[in-house]
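[job 0412] stage=fold_complex status=start
inputs:
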Amino acid sequence: MCQNHKNPSHFEGTEIEKSVDLTPVNYQSYIQGMKFFDPHIHMTSRTTDDYEALADAGIVAIIEPAFWLGQPRTGLASFKDYFSSLVGWERFRSSQFGIKHYCTIGLNSREANNEALAEEVMEILPLYLQKEGVVGVGEIGFDDQTALEEKYYRAQIELAKEFELPVQVHTPHRDKKKGTERSMAIALEHGIDPKMVIIDHNNEETVKSVLDQGFYAAFTIYPFTKMGNERMVEIVKQYGSERIMVNSAADWGISDPMAIPKTAALMKIHGISEQDIQKVTYQNALDAFAQSGQIKEADFIDGLQIDQSQKFNGNTVLRGGQSPRIDKSSIFIR
Amino acid sequence: MKKSAELTKILQANLSDVNLQWINSKKKGEAKDLALAFVLAGRKIESKEISVFDFLQTIDPNWNLETCNAISLVRAYFLVLLEENYEKEIFQKWINELFETAEINESIALIQFLSLSSYPDIVISRAKDAVRSNIGSIFDAIAFNNPFPFNYFEEAAWNQLILKCIFNDKPIHQIIGLNERRNIALAETLSDFAHERWAAHRRVPSQVWRLVIPFINDEIAKDIERLFLSEDEKDQLAASLVCLESESAYLKGLIEQNSSKIKKFEGFNWSHLEVNEPIYTGQEDVSKS
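[job 0412] stage=fold_complex status=done
writing structure:
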């Protein structure tokens, strides 16, 4: 997408845009001491620089949903390796920066359209859904809103019920309003408790219905194609903080892993209470996904705790599992 | 007595009734059910340390792991059942599936208890893969307090394990069989490695030099000389210990020249060097943090 293109905003030219001073601010100064939980971020597509920045900005835990990697997969083995990396390599990489890494596992909507492969993927999902630190089925839902997407969305809601896991629902970019309504109607038809379902990528047009029907409403702060954080401030002003959460969905596209801390700072500037900020940038995501029984806040709230099962003779061999920091401002690389 | 029966006794002595009931409900399952129970243990079993030393000694007297996590031990139990109750081919199919889909703690349990298996031939490639892992705790599971490499790795794989351990600044003294499997190829590679490190103004952990003792040659003797000249007392201690334990003619002159240093370290041994040492010269010692 052209970088100069401005996403048409519902608030374009309204009070908020006029009221915000556009001179650069050091947003970090507004969020000192705050802790954040990003319930949707694709770290597989990000660098160690991002991990450092996340840790520095106060992000203590993240959830990485299984998604479309950009390049379509052609065989089961590449799905398997991807799911394994979400519970293995990426979890380790994150731990090196002191960030607790969880994931949701699922067959994404785009690749649900390859029926032969989708059948094979469905076979291996139960194995992954029962693993430690897998906090939901996700991200699943509609993209093109095809019959095959619906088939596998329904099948995966049944898996979520069987394993008592929350569902992280991706709502489509195109025809979003209808796609969101259809996703919710199907979930309710399958008899899943709406508080076990996180409807993601909401906007001003979808939020009311999502909240009214008892679902969690997640908002992705993502330049150009999803929500901007000024609009997010208005949402929280209007709807409060109950069952609302923000995420970055940072991935291989032009996205911003700092979306949550930046949004928190902007909320602070606009006078939203710290309690409400804490709920939409930390607590609600924690509460929603802790319904999986797989999240212990004590594991990360005061710094990442060493996993007891990774000790040898009661000692950790690693130096606390942390990587040494490098001084990025130095011209020397040693 | 079967391994599963021995493990049952340990589990009964240490786990809660709820945990034991769950294990009982799974233990008679099909191979697939046992494999799934291996995975599910992470969600069902309470995490705590259990003493396993006495049991492991009966499997292999070198096996010096003192404790392990209850979840890992329950996983080991299901693997043992899978092996005892099913044909080799079925065991192989499921152990491969478990390795290929494992999250980190599952990988650790699989690797930590490889030596419970009677089929080292089908798991040895997994053990070598663990050495290749860059996930610290998975590497540690094969490297430390684990008799499998000592018993089954050929020399090249063994040397790779030792070198990677040193390269990654890890404590080699926790490797079982470290002295017994010293070899000349490893000693010569270590000497080369030290030269590269020194050229880069980096350190070599002092205890590494215990590995060269039976294989002193002209080149390695020069390395020992350099250690005596080091400002780091740990290097001087390592040089002294090498001199005391070697009968090599190459060291005679060095011993005479450095007799006062060697005397200073009377009563010291390699255990005094069994510490994590940062390899990057001048960097703050992060091993204590």
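[job 0412] summary: Chain B has a mean pLDDT of 93.
[job 0412] exit 0
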